[in-house]
Amino acid sequence: MKNAQTIRGSQQVQKPRQQGTSLLELTVVVAVIMILSTMAMPLVVNAMRTFRIAGDARSIAGELSLARLRAANDFTRTRLHLNTTAGGAFDGTFQVELWDAVGGQFVAEGGTQSLAPGDSFTVGTLSSAPPNTQSTLAETGDIVFNSRGVAVDPATLSPIDGDVIYIGNSSQQYYAISVGSGSRIVTWQYDGANWNQI
Q1: Where are the domains of the chain?
Q2: 20-197 sits in which CATH class?
Q3: For position 161, what pLDDT does the model report?
């Protein structure tokens, strides 16, 4: 009698094999999955941070466009207001506000939006502003548009060129949203050495 088979006449009959997987095989598969997921986790976390900060930059650019259009449409001043804490620091929230001529102040239109967790309004470790925007690197804060949709200085209401809002995160990723000549809104990404328009 052979181990794997028996011979009966001209037929070969297979002995039934044991089916299933062994505990050792399962352990090896689980170990490989754990190793691969441990290696991939930092890449996934960094990709999520990049997606969040890029989304925040798009949201701010969209709200700036809305503020500019509302100013021209309603023939009034508007601004994108970056909210601050009692201590004067930015709290990571922002909203579009319209000028109320009767009350003599800006009033919120729509809801307050928030930056993604881990993102903040900051210049962080940056050493230069995006090209053709600011001569001195500084967070602009509120960006005001006059009744024609032109970016203006909040104090003098004279047209200005080069307002910039900076956002950054703990991974040293930075974006800037600038309002340039003709109130053109441009989004920039910092690659560690240079600003790139996106």
Answers
A1: 20-197
A2: alpha beta
A3: 82
